[in-house]
Amino acid sequence: MFVLELGLIGLCIALLPLSWVWVKADDNKFRKLVWITTFMTLDLVMFGGFTRLTDSGLGCPDWPGCYGTSSPFIAHAQIAAANALMPTGPVSLTKAWIEMIHRYFAMAIGVLIIAQTAIAWRARIKRLPLHVSPWWPTALLGLIVVQGIFGAWTVTMKLQPIIVTTHLMLGLTLLGTLGWLAARITPLPAYEPEAGRWRVAALAALALLVFQIALGGWVSTNYAVLACTDFPTCNGAWIPPMDFHHGFHLWRALGMDANGDVITQDALVAIHWTHRTFALVVVAYLAWFALKLRRFESLRRPANGVLIVILIQFLTGLSNIVLQWPLANAVAHNGGAAILLLFVVMLNFRIACSRPGRAVIPARDTAPA
């Protein structure tokens, strides 16, 4: 019964953007729906970072509800009892609400993607112009199901770092795929065939960024942000003592090493130092890449976006260390990585389309309402 209640909550949240898309004067409501789903997914990724950074991942220690109910209101007695047994533990009313709000919005995005899938297949059956295969939203629907499974494992496996990191990366995969789909059904600027020569460089930029985000996720899920307390050195040394074997052993419990012992400081330093050092490579490459692409009119805006977000990421990453990991700053750093991913995905899409014979989507077209 409470699962049905959860579904209704997700549906009610999704009805707000669905209603907004419906009443807006737009000739392609499907396009608007994809864009607003992309924006909400970005918000969800950032709120997921907030959930993790506030230690709210186990605010409700079961899944998908909270102590077998649809709301912390209903589970208030169980939450109070758990908090009384362990006042500094993972369960409190505030953390429970943070965790459940994250789940509610994840369900709402699932509803929006179901709506996309239904619209796309209706357009295919009725031969309506939609400029996108229905298999795109269908694949997104499959992806969000897998993401939900990892969300459940995140709770049931007690925040195991590899599960939480995979959950994060799947969320960013969903965001990036939605961004690609949104770009695919949006009219493009004038084509510049010479931009097509940068396809390999664009793919390299995406690969480097994804790997760096995964390293950042590993830092966050292992709570290794303050393993190095100074900059540019790490604990007073350019190459401090590090334990890469235990730091990057993937299958282990939170706070433990591969042998079941408490993870050492040297292992946490290895995690932090690797993310920090590889960031220099990624920043240098992305800055060079974006500066080179600014000469193309069709790529200038996303390239400028990359340059701006790189600067913000450097400043927020540095201040995480100097200011001892303030919450708002840490959430901004997580969100910056997601926004940077969107810009790089957009650049990859536009470069991939910079070739002769690519069908152009008209600026105004007809799509199912």
From TrEMBL:
The keyword Metal-binding applies. Pfam families: COX15-CtaA. The chain crosses the membrane at residues 6-23, 35-53, 104-123, 135-156, 162-186, 198-219, 273-291, 303-325, 331-349. Pathway: Porphyrin-containing compound metabolism. GO terms for molecular function: metal ion binding; oxidoreductase activity. It comes from the Bacteria. Keywords: Cell membrane, Disulfide bond, Heme biosynthesis, Iron, Membrane, Metal-binding, Oxidoreductase, Transmembrane, Transmembrane helix. This is Heme A synthase. It comes from Paraburkholderia dinghuensis. GO terms for cellular component: membrane. The keyword rRNA processing does not apply. It is a multi-pass membrane protein. GO terms for biological process: heme A biosynthetic process. It is found in: Membrane. InterPro entries: COX15/CtaA_fam, COX15/CtaA_HemeA_synthase.
